[in-house]
Amino acid sequence: MQRYKCIISYDGIGFSGYQVQPNKRTVQSELEAVLAKMHKGMAVKVSASGRTDAGVHAKGQVIHFDSPLVIPMEKWAMALNSLLPDDLSVLSVEKAKDTFHARYDAIGKEYRYYLQMSSVRDPFQRNYAYQYPYKLDLETIKEASQYLIGTHDFTSFCSAKTEIEDRIRTINAIEITLEGDKLCFRFVGNGFLYNMVRILVGTLLEVGTGDRLPSDIPDIIAKRDRRFAGKTAPGHGLYLWKVFYK
Amino acid sequence: MQRYKCIISYDGIGFSGYQVQPNKRTVQSELEAVLAKMHKGMAVKVSASGRTDAGVHAKGQVIHFDSPLVIPMEKWAMALNSLLPDDLSVLSVEKAKDTFHARYDAIGKEYRYYLQMSSVRDPFQRNYAYQYPYKLDLETIKEASQYLIGTHDFTSFCSAKTEIEDRIRTINAIEITLEGDKLCFRFVGNGFLYNMVRILVGTLLEVGTGDRLPSDIPDIIAKRDRRFAGKTAPGHGLYLWKVFYK
Q: How far is A47 from chain B (nearest CA, A)?
């Protein structure tokens, strides 16, 4: 048996999220179906750095699995990709130690959120950026984002359905940059709670329109109550960009 | 009755091309269905600058139609877009003279063809660029492209099924530029025959791999026979970018 670590990318639109669900097309079920085929029906369990929701994209999701197959390293990605559907691609495969775990060994993640600031619908961006027709003040958004950096209890910024008890996370960096008519929000942190990036973006947008003040952010954090933060931005603007390991 | 000129954009993947065909989803049929709805069932004929094939995209297709409806000019695009599917969008609507014709008045067009030069499949580009894993010599492609510029009989570079007799066209400019890992071919000319841009690209790629020489191009033109040119590049890399009028 050899453990393999893979970086994968997927267009989230065609998937009901990452994790296996009965009768749904998910990233994990497509990967496990292909591995079962390669292993002549033997079940191969795939573990990821974390789940992504329906419609959420990945540029650099990380998974691991164990296999007894003897395949030259440079052929692994091609072998997997030749069987995978074209909205899911293995970017790289490498050997990992038996103790490597895609989820437990991750020390940080980068997510990006893309907003298309346009009043006219762009058919090419409909699945890949959140079309936002309202005027935004980028400077106040940037100012507000600085209050989020650091170690906080992010209970206000995660889904009320979140079961995990420890909601303390560290955000190392938030960068907001204009790329043509698209606004890119880049979040780097040690971990993100369920819906956290989407709620952070939704709240920052409410600052950008003037409905909230940058200085409201510390109060929202202090409330530790989802109802005080902004709306959850749609999933199709969100990308799991990179997972960091030691 | 007032004639309207519109610039429209569509993601070609979900359409069986521009033109109405029985039992197929086409751009023209979607537009005419929405206009019929707005006109309480009255048929409104839509004319475009030209057809596009299945899978071919448009960033700036031009259409015209006539309507008796009294709608403030700034509301027209929104009214149409609110009824159109999200892979087809009206970018602008303006009043045109009764004699304006989207096809007959066009004096030129710009097409772009996008190639993704990568051996790894990118899920986000699968419908929007032709993934090309082979090594290309860009300088010889550029050299070959210069032989295509000017006024020529492009019979060798159009589908053998082309019914039109006059195959003389003028190409004003061909620009080939690298944008990250994508190669963009930009063609500007007074008109393009059926499959012409895709065959031009397919032939230039065969120069880029070394299977043909740049100096073969004048011979291929002189043959006036489709069999002497290269393969037809896939439709999903092609974009009708702009239509020019006087």
A: 21
Percent of chain A that is helix, strand, coil (3-state, to 5): 25, 30, 45
For all residues of chain B together, what is the average pLDDT?
Answer: 97
Q: Answer yes or no: B53 catalytic.
A: yes
Judged on CB neighbours under 10 Å (0-12, 13-18, 19+), A71 is: middle
pLDDT digits (tens, 9 = 90+) for A121-147: 999 999 999 999 999 999 999 999 999
Residues of A in contact with B128 (CB under 8 A): 124
Tell me: do B77 and B181 sit in the same domain. no
Give A227 to chain B, closest Cα distance, Å: 32
Contact B132, B117 (CB under 8 A): yes
Which of A77, A96, A115 is at the close of a domain?
Answer: A96
Domain identity same for B189 and B125: yes
Residues A202 and A121 placed together within one structural domain of the fold: yes
The reply to whether A102 falls in a domain is no
B123 vs A87, A123, A124: nearest CB: A87
Residue A103's Cα: distance from chain center in Å? 13
Q: Which of B53, B66, B87, B153 is an active site residue?
A: B53
pLDDT tens digits for A22-81? Answer: 999 999 999 999 999 999 999 999 999 999 999 999 999 999 999 999 999 999 999 999
Interface A:B, Cβ pairs < 8 A: 46
Q: What are the tokens at B182?
A: 């994508």
Q: Is B147 annotated as a binding residue?
A: no
CATH number of the domain that residue A7 is part of: 3.30.70.580
* β-strand pairing of A168-179 with A150-153: antiparallel
Same domain, A50 and A137: no
Q: Which value does ipTM take for this structure?
A: 0.91
Interchain CB distance below 8 Å, B77 and A121: no
Q: How many domains does chain A have?
A: 2
- Are B127 and B221 contained in the same domain? yes
Number of continuous H segments (helices) and E segments (strands) in chain A: 5, 10
Interface test mutation site (partner B, options A7, A30, A120, max chain B beta carbons within 10 A): A120
Which range marks the domain in which residue B185 is found? Answer: 108-245
Interchain CB distance below 8 Å, B124 and A81:
no
- Among B88, B121, B122, the residue with its CB nearest the CB of A123 is B88
